[in-house]
Design brief:
Distance between the termini: 55 Å
Order of helices and strands: HEEEHEHEE
Number of strands: 6
Largest sheet: 6 strands, mixed
CATH topology: Aminopeptidase
Length: 142
């Protein structure tokens, strides 16, 4: 099958959708990925505005934290810790025993390590010495 190959800095959304759909179709045929469940915990102010959130997903015994964010003005007040505590509690209720996540050196690796996460993998080669860390925590280990 002759193909023409292209590289794009900004690919068309329709082209990206084709790849996403193909991966999704393969994953659903080969695994129980349909059992993946979203997990989101939000912190809201008295007006209902989101001031922070922990967003991820669970599947089997694993829970992935994909995003943790706290509004800049609200940082340093324990909101991130409370979000993580509630996120981990919900993962535990769902039967998960492992939480994992990725973070960069300029984000929050020390925050997660203080919460009992340990670095299991490092990706180096980014500019300015930035490192991407993959961390894990076994629930029940503190």
């Amino acid at each position: 099958m002759p193909l023409r190959f292209e590289s794009h800095e900004q690919a068309a959304a329709s082209d990206l959708s084709v790849v996403d759909a193909g991966i999704d179709q393969h994953n659903r045929a080969e695994s129980e990925i349909r059992k993946v469940r979203q997990l989101a915990v939000f912190g809201r102010d008295v007006h209902g505005e989101v001031k922070g959130g922990a967003v991820g997903r669970t599947w089997g015994l694993c829970c992935e934290l994909q995003q943790l964010w706290v509004e800049p003005e609200a940082r340093g007040c324990g909101i991130g810790s409370e979000l993580m505590e509630r996120f981990e509690q919900e993962a535990d209720v769902r039967g998960c025993s492992l939480v994992y996540l990725d973070t960069f050196t300029f984000q929050a690796p020390q925050f997660y390590e203080k919460r009992g996460y340990r670095v299991v993998f490092e990706t180096r080669g980014f500019t300015n010495g930035i490192v991407k860390y993959t961390l894990q925590k076994t629930l029940g280990d503190g």
